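Lab notebook, design round three. We kept the backbone fixed and only want residue identities now. Task for the bench partner: fill in a sequence for the structure below.
Input structure tokens:
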């Protein structure tokens, strides 16, 4: 069973969302602050700034903090990380753009294609997790994640969309 005991640990005041996506140095500072305040897992959705998150977690491990991880976003970043960074990447949450393109082409071929926003959800296979680093398997989490996916889709396990209060103004 996965037991999540989480809280928002806001980082550096004054770093906007747009600045935060393109500054590995700023992200490293924010990630270091979060680790110092007790964070175990840092999920970044920060573009190239994720490199700074990786560096902070690598440094924390080198300083003896065991059990700290990074979770990546968008693509399987295990495949492009350095060997040192690969050791701290638990998984990546990947956007399944291939499925979005396929769905649009299927709609186009059926004469139902429209412009605008298309929301790709977990139910619509718009996202998934990766297992490329082997850590989810090592800690026997793959089966548990596959077990909870339908419960999330069905709403039996609620997923909050609430933002950390410190970052609501960045939207």
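Proposed sequence:
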């Amino acid at each position: 069973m996965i037991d999540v005991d989480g809280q928002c640990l806001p980082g550096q005041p004054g770093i906007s969302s747009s600045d935060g996506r393109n500054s590995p140095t700023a992200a490293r500072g924010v990630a270091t602050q979060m680790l110092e305040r007790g964070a175990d897992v840092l999920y970044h959705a920060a573009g190239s700034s994720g490199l700074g998150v990786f560096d902070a977690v690598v440094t924390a491990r080198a300083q003896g903090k065991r059990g700290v991880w990074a979770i990546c976003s968008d693509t399987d970043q295990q495949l492009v990380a350095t060997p040192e960074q690969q050791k701290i990447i638990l998984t990546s949450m990947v956007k399944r753009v291939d499925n979005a393109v396929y769905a649009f082409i299927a709609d186009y071929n059926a004469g139902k294609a429209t412009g605008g926003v298309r929301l790709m959800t977990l139910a619509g296979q718009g996202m998934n997790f990766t297992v490329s680093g082997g850590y989810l398997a090592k800690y026997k989490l793959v089966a548990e994640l596959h077990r909870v996916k339908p419960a999330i889709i069905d709403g039996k396990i609620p997923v909050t969309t609430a933002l950390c209060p410190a970052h609501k103004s960045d939207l």
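Keep this in mind before ordering anything: The chain is about 35% helix and 10% strand.
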